[in-house]
Write a structure and sequence with these properties.
Layout (H helix, E strand, L loop, with lengths): L11 H36 L5 H8 L3 H24 L5 H24 L6 H21 L8 H26 L11 H19 L1
Length: about 210
Amino acid sequence: MRTSSSGETAGGAVTLGLLAAWALHDAEEAAVLPGWLRRNTPRLRERFPGVPEAVWRRAGTLEAREFAAAVGVMGAVVAAASAAGYATGGRSAFYQTALDGFGLHGLVHLAQAGAVRGYTPGAATSSLLVVPFTLWARRRLRRAGVLRPARPRDLVLGLGLAGAATAAAHGVARRVTGRWPGPPPGRPAGVRRVGACRVGARRAGAVT
């Protein structure tokens, strides 16, 4: 593990702390998000008419089970990033990108709260934990001499990683929980249509 001349180290508090901070942040979201969406989607739909209707339908049907599964998938990604950071004393590009994405994710939460002029799920821990932890961890990495320069491209990459991981987590969660947009997995759409035709034919025969 690399130690700077000032005695600072990029140890477990900085690297594994990312996983701990993420867990507390997502605990807030998991506890309140599904119910908050059901209560507030009608009001938000009226306030933001430019948002595609498909987004509102998706938000209004999010189930706690699906969200919990998505949290589990996302947790595996964050755990891998934290482990990579710990193993390399904070040098891992994967870890530092995840850290930047975590902090930017917190800023997005705060922007969402500002847009709706009130509380949104995740805003509390974003202001009290996510953003402060990210800034603190980056300072510790800098003092240890392992912090990579924060170029605009790196910030975009960090935010993109957070967004892509979130989307992938929900995609996997929908598969795990069986929430398919079309016919169930393993059953071609044509099978369902053929079955429906057979049922209709039997009903027609019964009527005649």
